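Deliverable D4.2, example record:
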Amino acid sequence: MVEVPNSIKNRFWLKKEWSKDLPADVYIPDKPLHEVVDEACMRYGNRTALIFYGAKFTYAQLKEFTDRFATSLSKMGVKKGDVVAIYAPNCPQFAIAYYGAMKAGATVTALSPLFSPREVEYQLNDSNSKVLVTVEQLYPNFQQVRKNTKVEKVIVANITGGQAKVEGEFIDFMDMFAVNPAPPKIKWNVDEDIAVLQYTGGTTGLPKGAMLTHKNVVANCFELKPYTDIIVNWMCSSRVLQEEGDYLILDLDGREYKTLREYYENKHGSRVAILPWYHIYGQTVDLNAGLVNGEIIVVFSKFEPDKIFEAIQQYRITTFMGAPAIFIAYVNNFPDLFKKYDISSLLYVNNGAGPIPPEIVHKWDELTNNLVLLCEGYGLSEASPVTHTHGLPPPLRKRKVGSIGQPIPNTYAAVIDPETLEFLPPSKEGELVISGPQVMKGYWNRPRETEEVFFYADGMKWLRTGDIAKMDEEGYFYIVDRLKDIIKYKGHSVYPREVEDVIYEHPAVQEVCVIGLPDISAGGETIKALVVLRPEYRGKVTEQDIINWCKERLAAYKYPRSVEFRNELPKSAAGKYLRRVLREEEMRKLGLKK
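Output generated by the structure prediction step:
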């Protein structure tokens, strides 16, 4: 019988380096997600909720549109437990369909706009989707596989708000509003009823649907809310007091403020939504959390570096949630933008979706003159997704570059031996495990995989993340690497992230991904680095230069045995480098995969 140490049961980090203003636990309402958002819509009324390339939507409008959308879905036969799929980029139509489907009783599953027709077909069939909501640009992909799915109704939107102009049998998105708003009254069991079916890419096998209940996703929103509240309050009492205000700030709703203090005190914050909403990371930290907090969300359908910084300056954005590829692109490819635009309104900048090299964090800090610090967090689809964050800038909390921070309120975390499940003490490396109200119900129609990813200890249900981690004496956690990504070189365990961090220190390197490949001659695996050079260094740095750089800084068994320069590296829409794709490409070159 595995026992949980008392230090973990008592969350020892609460007595170590825990912010005095941050609660250990927060109240989580027993309400479905759309009801929580509806309450925000009624509370904030005519305040701007969404801005999409100049088009504005108020909270009151968002509620009315989602009520009408839910009513139309109900009239076409959607009932509790059905699955509605959304295949669209970030846009107001996505938000309306997302909450409207839930109001009709449905579970939502979202598909990446980057999906090929084959991938669309797989997720629609695996999720047993009954209705698909998509946009004109993506509709042809679905049409290619339509006959192979069980989708009964297709709703197509013109992303600019007009009538959809496509061929085939479909319902126009705008026609969904031609009803009196009367969403069905549904009895919810928030602990069991699934709000979102989030498909996880994983490193092997076919994607699995993580069943995230209404309790899961609502919990994560409320677990994160204190961080925003604390930061805004701190800004009003410290940084803002140092600014002299004899100027006017015009906010989005036309109100004038004479000082930044007055502005922040009357504003519930704002954020740019560039993380894809097809993924639970973007849904939770931008869409759901933003609306629950009553914030203004400036929505981008794709990564547009210049326009994003321009929006931060124009709208005095306070929150910027991103992924490694976004921040790497800014510091390596667009450093001039930090001088071109004033982004000092940012209170919270956070990296998630994957580890970020410390070198990139330091460069970001330098480019922002240490006024807009880049924090790090951690999560996974199976946890709705956030479990850890630094969340609060100094002096509110100690900052440790390279750490994902401490567990968020209501959350337990530990490091275990992946073989014995024994809980390990600080400084020992093992598998990161999580317990908390945001942890999924299980995998959709996959009882065996669900059983494998959970274990119980002292009455607590623990999620195995598959990530190798360690924690320090103050409860700060560090991700070492993915358990499945560890490279076995001549009996040694090599962590790709460690090698990547060293390569990132080379001045010529823009991006890098390290993978393990079968070593046909010696058995085991060999180490290969795929590198994108900065434009000014291309043709001036050789592959051997990179290998020699690593030899000087790593143990003899850790440096890459081969390096290949590429023009770009494949990434998911969430900004993660796709090691699996790179590995498969290299395996085909070796003749080991068709």
